[in-house]
Please model this.
Amino acid sequence: MAEATIPTFMRGKDKIMSLSDAVKTFIKPGTCICPGGFSYTKKPFALAREVIRQDIKDLFVTMNGGASICEFWAAAGLVKLLDTTYIGLEGIQPVAYSVRRSIQDGTIDVEDYSNYGFGLRTVAGRYGWPFAPLMSEFGTSFMDHDTFGKMGLRGKKADGSWIHPSIAPARAAVIEDPFDGWGLRPHAFDGGDATSNQTNFLEQVRESTAYTGNKGVKCILVPPILPEVTIILAQRTGELGTTRIEGIWGPDNEQAISAKNCIVQVEKIVQEEELRAQPYSNTIAMQYIDAIVEVPYGGFPGQVPYYYDYDWDFWRSYTQINRKDKAEVNTYIRDWVMEDEWTFLSTRPGDGYPTITGTSGLERLFELRADAMYGYKPGLARPL
Amino acid sequence: MERKRMRARITEEDLRLSEAVEPKESFETWQKVINAAWDMTIVAVAYNDMRIPLKRVPETLDTLEKAVSTVTDEKTLDIIEEELKTGVRHFSDILEGARDSRERMDRILRATWNRRVQLKT
Model:
């Protein structure tokens, strides 16, 4: 069997790769890439830094769950298209500034969905659904915008192939509910229906003629996400790819399974039997994992639950840096990642930003160690 | 004092990145430190799951001990015996693993202290 045709789940231990090889093999200019994790938590920053080191441009970033990785890539000028829902750095910078500036100056073209809508797109991608239904974007301006459509990136070419394999032929579609609102729990049970999982506006919705011109319950359909590569961070992965995530999952499972290829950046590679002893605790089956990269502390400056907390002091300073001149931020981020990950981890933690203790490198990383009882580091100073 | 410093405005001087420095410790040493730390963490996370049930076990065993004297059917005693044998096997494994690791931790703490003294002299 030719190497390229060997299914992922049969490839065995050759999935274990160096950081540099994994990025070189799977991420190319223009790749539709989906970073996993949520906010500052469990973000595969080591992989993100390697993408900057290899200067892979024109990325099409699709993501749910915070913009911290996209912020670094935007700062390095590597992002061209963005299909997303939330581009904040949480409380410290509600809109990630490099992403925002690039959208404003036209360097990045963005397609935006509601959080719920995008979440359903990842679920559709995971289960192989052709689309997912929702109602929550009705009445919002989401329905009026279609950036990728205006750019001519939707639909098929004359030869019948898709113009862009990761961009759906429509942003969304509206249909009349074939079940006449029955799924919205119209109090059909004797004595009514006490569940909170229902709408109080069903009768008003029935009367509306918006979107189709006809009265009746309508529904929005959103397409699945189909990334070429998803990158995630996990605490433990077996040597064949069985992956266990502890703490908040975020959209990792959905996005990993949706993708053509998935790279897992992991704190520790362990024997498969260690994880298979409790199969119900595992998050992603080995056949969905194409490359395994072991980088302990590679989630810095983010958090990995139970292992280490995020470096608040870094983010506090970074949000001052990313407001500087665009070219200056670009130079900063390329200097910041250094030539390899070990040099980075030995030098950058605690470097270029003030901390209470003044520690740096590995010493700073161990200062961020989480208490396994809580999953984070209680008492870590987070001054504003 | 330190808190006040953290609240102070971050200066341009603070934000300057340094050149790559030769790490004071070797990559191999750090790798060994992280490896051991991560293994102890994996156990601590797993222990977190059994912390509450483990505290409950002595109490339920006390209750079982009292119940033994009221058993009327020998087959019930067979079942109790089997359950306890299984428990002894599992808990012995836990004890053995924990004791082995704990002893090593003490040993390494002593070695760390010795090395600290050596580095000072």
In short: The longest helix of chain A spans residues 115-127. Chain A touches chain B through 37 residues (CB under 8 Å).
